[in-house]
Design brief:
The structure is a homodimer of 287-residue chains. By secondary structure, chain A is an alpha/beta fold. Chain A has helices at residues 40-48, 80-84, 118-128, 164-172, 187-199, 208-215, 220-239, 251-263, 273-282, and strands at 5-10, 14-21, 24-32, 55-60, 73-75, 78-79, 90-92, 95-99, 102-106, 112-115, 136-141, 146-152, 155-162, 245-249, 268-272. Chain A has nine helices and 15 strands.
């Protein structure tokens, strides 16, 4: 099947669209997150603009309640083929629209977790590196809601969410920074925060970011770095990864998590999050 | 020394003033927190209104930078007598104004912590129950910034802050509750959150409050209760109290912490926070 194609990852805070030509990315556009207000259909039409699009494929919050069309959460374990087969086509402004399903899982105690969008990156990573589709792999997608995902012979068998990035943003606007959020993210503070995460619990350490400004004259930037190191460190202490971690994300965040993992002697390797998202989206409704 | 007296506790979110007659509380007024905007002097004058006040004594954020007059943090250990002796008198609209000093401390690793206002309640508690002034006691003042305080033979020797209440408020406005903060605080959810805090770390459990709404049909109220139980439970797991805990606070929060402490087999007893604040404030500039 041929024709013009647009694929996109629409998260809570950002829309990224790619126009494909002969299956390859020819152009890229960005727009607002689906939770940042406005009618999703109108927003999508405006960002698509003059792009021809016989077919559109979206992942992420586009399939959430309040998104374009609500899609189910497929319960884990889920293979790439099961995931690709999900979902009927919708019509959007004359285009055929398909939206990726999300995933749900339960831990050993039966407690639930969900994801929307990260599954596309993971399945894309398996398409880019077929050796990921055999054996067991631990994948980390750091971000607003970090996902720690277990792969077993090509299936996503379970995962856990740490809302580390969201907590960092919330605390940046808290009483820890009464003069307003500092812009920087100090390396010395980051290292101090990582160290602190090894020493004691998160909740009883957060306030040190404020006390160090008041008593020791630390800057707001140092405290931001401390908070970042403390949160990322706490995430890794809690998740206690063993073996090599595959980190899928952007370069900046991957480097920060890499420093935290190295500190605990955990090997890692990295893949680019955008490349993985594109590879996953191309699997849906493909030629 | 006689004359009209007003005492008050001015925190970040609330001002409470008490007018004394012959040393006893005759009237009570409330006003906005010192961080909620407006010139502190004008706010205080407006709430004082027609009250006669030869002498005014305030504790809390009244002594913070940006408050009425910045007061130092006294480094622990600090006895009641050392604390009472601090601070020169200021003049406020014809009244003699004194503001309580805050406290600072360092843990065994030298990391700092600070308090403003809670020291007044603790020293007030020792005035109300003199047996607290001998031996070792662990005191918890739950709230926006929970304080865990160690007393040794009448001196405050150290403390640690957990910003549990602030985190609860921040997370109530997070993506865990996309439809807006739920008003209730479900008991079943609270118990589930307490249990979860015993099982695994805070950061990797928070998102369950959202997933349980999406996958298991839990209400926003249940999720609020879960979040409250998880945070209070995590605080107690991290602080790992031993021996009896003296909880100084209001009845509602004391009951919640009591349930969490009982779950871990930790005995507690309670004192009313407002009574302790009044008792502490009366020690400063007293007749």
């Amino acid at each position: 099947m041929s024709g013009s194609r647009v694929i996109g990852d629409w998260g809570g805070t950002r829309l990224r669209l790619w126009r494909l030509e002969d299956g390859e990315v020819a152009e890229r556009r960005e727009g607002p997150g689906i939770l940042t207000g406005g009618d999703p259909g109108e927003t999508l039409a405006a960002i698509l603009g003059d792009w021809p699009a016989d077919r559109i494929v979206l992942c992420g919050m586009a399939g959430a309640r309040g998104g374009l069309h609500e899609m189910p959460y497929l319960p884990c374990p889920v293979s790439a083929d099961q995931w690709r087969a999900q979902g009927k086509a919708h019509e959007f402004a004359g285009s055929r629209l398909r939206i990726a399903a999300g995933l749900s899982c339960r831990d050993a105690s039966g407690r639930p977790d969900v994801m929307r969008g990260e599954e596309t990156q993971i399945i894309g990573a398996m398409a880019l590196e077929p050796e990921l589709a055999t054996g067991t792999h631990l994948v980390l997608l750091p971000g607003t809601h970090s996902k720690w995902v277990r792969l077993d012979d090509g299936a996503i068998v379970g995962f856990r969410t740490c809302p580390t990035g969201e907590l960092f943003a919330l605390l940046g606007r808290s009483s820890l920074f009464p003069e307003g959020e500092a812009a920087g993210n100090d390396n010395e503070g980051f290292a101090a925060g990582l160290q602190r995460a090894d020493e004691r619990g998160l909740l009883s350490t957060l306030f040190e970011a404020r006390a160090a400004q008041l008593v020791d004259g630390r800057s707001g930037n140092w405290a931001q770095g401390f908070l970042s190191g403390l949160l990322i460190g706490a995430e890794i202490v809690e998740m206690a990864p063993e073996g090599t971690v595959l980190v899928i994300g952007d370069a900046g965040l991957t480097a920060r998590y890499g420093e935290a993992l190295a500190r605990r002697g955990v090997p890692m390797r990295a893949m680019d999050g955008e490349a993985c998202a594109i590879a996953g989206l191309r699997l849906i409704d493909e030629d």
